[in-house]
Structure formats: C-alpha cells, structure tokens
Design goal:
Layout lengths: L1 H27 L1 H6 L1 H48 L1 H16 L5
Helix pairs in contact: 1-3
Length: 106
C-alpha cells in the first residue's frame, strides 16, 4: 500500500510541474507571452516533452533498480546459504582430504 501512496504523490508532483510551473512562469512573464504567443506555446510544448522524457527515464530507472535489487538479494541469499550449511563444509573437507591424500598436484 505504501508504494501506491508514493506513486500518487509522484503523479501529483508531476502534475504540479506540468501545469503549475508553466502557469506561474506565464503569469510572471505575461507581457512577453502576449508579445510572442507562438514562442510561448513552443516553450511550453518543449517543457512538457522534457517532463514526459524525465518521467519515462524515472520509470525505467525504478524498474531497473527493482530488478537489480532482486538479483543482488538472490545472489546474496545463495552465497550465504551455501556458506552456512553443514553440507557444504563437509563436502569441502571431503574434497580437500581426497585430493590432498594422494599427494599429487594438478
């Protein structure tokens, strides 16, 4: 459930950036917007495209982070479980005894 809350907060922030920021800047620079309406529309469009690209990159990086975290967790679990089991310790001792008893080196 916490992930859903974080997602809605992220969307609200993105909505604020997508609508709020151009609105604030447009009201502050209204004389320039009036004198150059096409330029203002172009800049808003470019800003929205940049936000969309940023949202996409953020989504991809979160997905990659989740996949990488799972791989690291799985590898760590395998490493620790293999190191901590008695079977592996016995098996290693048996291999050492078997290969060192003959006195031959490879």
């Amino acid at each position: 459930m916490a992930g859903d809350k974080g997602l809605s907060i992220g969307r609200a922030g993105l909505l604020g950036l997508g609508v709020g920021a151009p609105l604030v800047v447009g009201t502050q620079l209204w004389p320039k917007v009036e004198s150059h309406p096409l330029l203002a529309v172009g800049l808003v469009f470019a800003y929205e495209v940049a936000l969309a690209v940023l949202a996409f990159v953020s989504s991809v990086s979160k997905e990659l982070e989740n996949r990488l975290a799972k791989r690291v967790a799985d590898g760590t679990e395998r490493l620790l479980s293999g190191r901590l089991t008695r079977y592996e310790r016995r098996y290693r001792r048996c291999l050492v005894a078997r290969h060192s008893a003959g006195g031959s080196t490879v």
